[in-house]
Amino acid sequence: FFGHGLSTGSNSALSLTVQAQHCVWYGECGESTKVPGKKYNCNYTGPPIPLGQEGDELLTELCPGYNYGNQSLCCNVDQLRTLKGSLQLPLQFLSRCPACFFNLMNLFCELTCSPHQSQFMNATQFTPDPDPKQANKSNVVEVRYYIGQTFANAMYNACKDVQAPSSNVKALSLLCGKDAKDCNATNWIQYMFDINNGQTPFPIIPIFSDVPVSGFTPMNNKTYECTEGLEDGSGPCSCQDCAKACGPKPVPPPLPPPWTILGIDAMTVIMWISYVAFLLIFIGAVLGAWNKPRHPHNSRQFFSLYVDASCCETLGERFENAMRLLFSAWGSFCVQHPLLVILGSLIVVAASSSGLVYMRVTTDPVELWSSPSSQARQEKDYFDSHFGPFFRTEQLIITTPSNDTDMYTPYPAGLDVPFKAILKKDMLHQVLDLQLDIEGLVATYEGENVTLKDICLAPLAPYNNNCTILSVLNYFQNSHARLDHSIEDEFFVYADYHSHFLYCVSAPASLNDTTLLHDPCIGTFGGPVFPWIALGGYDGTNYNNATALVITFPVNNYLNDTVKRGKALAWEKEFIRFLKSYSNPNLTIAFSAERSIEDEIDRESNSDISTIVVSYIIMFVYISLALGHIQSLRRLLVDSKISLGIAGILIVLSSVASSLGIFSFAGVPLTLIVIEVIPFLVLAVGVDNIFIIVQTYQRDERMHNEELHQQIGRILGDVAPSMFLSSFSETLAFFLGALSNMPAVRTFSMFAGLAVFIDFLLQISCFVSLLGLDARRQEANRLDIICCVKLPEGQVEKTDGFLFRFFKKVYAPFILKEWVRPIVVMCVSILFGGLFLNPTYFKNMSTYLHTGPPVYFVVEDGLNYSSLEGQNAVCGGVGCNNNSLVQQVYSASLISNYTTIAYTPSSWLDDYFDWVKPQSSCCRYYNNTGAFCNASVVNSSCVHCRPMTASGKQRPVGEEFMRFLPMFLSDNPNVKCGKGGHAAYSTAVDLYPDNKGVGATYFMTFHTILKESSDFIGALKMARVLADNITQSMDHRVFPYSVFYVFYEQYLTIAYDTALNLSVSLAAIFVVTTVLLGFELWSAVIVSITIAMILVNMFGVMWLWDISLNAVSLVNLVMSCGISVEFCSHIVRAFSISVKNNRVERAEEALAHMGSSVFSGITLTKFGGILILALSKSQIFQIFYFRMFLSIVLLGAAHGLIFLPVLLSYIGPSVNKAKVFASNTRYLGTERERLLNY
């Protein structure tokens, strides 16, 4: 960049008296033979020559503060013009720090024009001028420039921190030929004067010394530090461009010390103390109960004490009796009028299910995980509506199985540099072939061909339509010929792709490397490819050690244009198809497209359909076979209940279809979680109720003069309240779960709540009618399924089922033995305590990527950028506020390990100020039309936007600010003007219609490398904290936006959401249980405690099984809350209505009657189906469904069938005196009294 100016000159800042010295050159002579378009200076050893008026003006412009007046100089106006053109890029990048640019101009002005040249310059080589008209002149083709080391160091120190806002790097990274961290005072100046930079027409050899050398006195002019203002009134450099101006570096706050007791984690100590205290109290209570004399009593004592029944007990008995009578009458009606009930049910189901024609499934991850009302979603919508959606990303990560290392030996000297196998030339050629094949892919959308050029991000279009491809191959302009370019002879390789690669990773924006190749590094799309984006698997900044290449194709995204979005999706589909079929034994490719997440959701759901179908078939077969109670082999087909089981399953599926249909009518979209989880949930609830109804009927004996419809009505009156209790608890819990802000949880809760309730209604109506028909078939000795076939009459002896006998005679008595019960309590408490102590955390490692995602600090509409106050609140250059937006983000980047902000932000405002300066050649317009004139245009009618006056050098404000801003945003960067804003900022500024003002804008930087979920969550938190601080200091809203925020925001509140959802669900279950158990508060407490214990143990299992807490697992936790009701409520209700003598006997009766149905129903049914899910190929089924569903069933069964009966035997509610009196009065003297005693 400097080279053009290097060939010509600089300014003389000394006010020393002119002594007997002479010039080294004067004027321009022949064309350079090494750098076409550049000229040599003419050899001249005479005295300085006076400048003309035009030269004086140029001298004042280029070398401010050094006014020679009529003094004679060693340069003419041609040299000054060349100097001006050559220093355009340094001016644009370094003039934001006045002291830096002043010192730099000092270096060049002294070199070019100083009347004291012979003091510090020595021309050492000359050639004759080939022009016949200049036969008496010769060209200076080499010169030695003696520079004071103090001056060089001071110039470097003033410039080393200056930023290049558009590329988020230091300016010296673009102007030193290497990364800024490797640049120093001497190699920077050596690069600027090096013939190999492609700009300097002849070698200028700098010699650094603070003492005279070989009779020459080094140039050691006065310099300014970056903290100093200049004599022309320019202020000191900003903190962002001058570390000395910042004061002490910010220090992140220390981490809070861990909370410990005696050096041990405090929570662990508290939990263990609580657990030990519980055990001691429990053991003491058990021992006390054993030593206490027992006084057995009979429940019939309560007959005489009915008057002692409390108000709540009486109210509970009346409520219980009302439900019993209601359900009995309804059951009798359903059995008497089966066709009416079944037909009515079919009509309702058909009407509800017809809404499925309006069904639409949401697979958009944003719609699944982010609520429209959430902060991240609203900020995303704001960003998309003002700047357009964030581009779509297609990415490849390419590795090789080869472990070879290629050693590169630099010429002429240097240590060998190892290049990993993926960076060998033959590998790069193969990768380039792959990349070019991808560029050439052609997809079809609605009969129209779609190529990458149709959809890709081309920042310089329409002037440069090349697609942005962030690939290391773009260092070679995606060309095989450039990759093979080398300078060599039979003895040495002077430069090849190795040297070009090493240069480009240090200076990716260079237009010309410093090797003999002189090839550009900048990509074909007109922008740099930063090595941390295109390479992976390296250490530190040793990019030659990279083990992976990362190729990224940014594709335009479209907010409301379905056609363009459809084209992008079609090309991405072809991209995926091509890479799936691509094969190369030397390359291992991992790839993703923007649509990959949605495709994966679809694939995950479709790939395991067979597994899910097998799972459901197993559950269906088990239900159909297990419902039957086979009395003998001869009556196998009579006593079986296959048709009834199938009918029960169809009822479950009908309830699911009805729920989906009703919400589809309402326009609520489905999610795949709903489709995959709700049938499982409703089948669990429905099967449990089916087994309870059928098995209660099978165990019952019809009383004298009682008809079938009366018997089934009576049975329904006994069991339906329990079914209603569980179903209504679950329904209410799910509907309250719909209050969640998380769309996936809310949608699931709504669909699940309605499906469970519809299932209950169909079971107490349609299924009861079908049960009546099946009972008549069985009593008529007709075969199941083949109803027209009838067996001959025979004596049937009714027996209890094996499972019921096992529970009644073996399991229940054993689990409730005096010595077994304490062991159960202690085992469950150990499980509870041990699992409660462990946290849940997330793991999601990324091996190769070395860059963080971009983050945009968005300034909302309303800030007045045309005023100095508005500008100072945002910008980062001279005169800007110390707490401006750019300055605060820059300060945050200094402690990136804490803030996760990696770089200084790109600032369109600061680059605009540099672009519009009158000294720059960037801002010009045609004086006859007022239209913008690009810096590369040579036309005499093009004039500078602003005058070279004191006011013209100030920032533009008011109308002038808006006049030139659209020109800046349309200007493409080029060799003469690197500050054009089209590529970097065309989407960063939302202009009002007719360019009347500036609306919303953004300032982009990057996060640090984020690999784990906790990194992404922390990055989101810190960005919001930083944005809040900026908002307060500006008194104008600023928010951060990055593409991952909408997905990770759920983790900021996932603990709160989980606690809220589960607490609300538990509260609903508690209230419903209290009411429906006849206002038995203590029973509801026991149910809630047991379900809470199941949930806590679920968290423990999630930790043990490495299941992260997210929206999917939260849905499963809400579901487990509902399913746990099935394991607990039936047994607690059976206990509460039991009239046995004591708690142990009541628990034994409840476990025998209801426990066997729960075990054969929900437990065995789900267990068989879940085991098949272990064969699933997809991670989501393996982790979130198989592991969590299995845990739900096992923990539910363990608590409901083991722990709960024991807990009831200890602290279960006392018998309801009113219920006992009513029960015994109702059946006194009837056959039912014998059954009750049995």
Automatic annotation (TrEMBL):
Bilayer topology annotation: Multi-pass membrane protein
Residue runs in coiled coils: none
InterPro entries on file: HMGCR/SNAP/NPC1-like_SSD, NPC1-like, NPC1_MLD, NPC1_N, SSD
Domain of life: Eukaryota
All residue ranges annotated as the SSD domain in the record: 608-773
Family per similarity comment: Belongs to the patched family.
Name of this protein: Niemann-Pick disease, type C1
Organism, scientific name: Myripristis murdjan (pinecone soldierfish)
Upper lineage: Eukaryota, Metazoa, Chordata, Craniata, Vertebrata
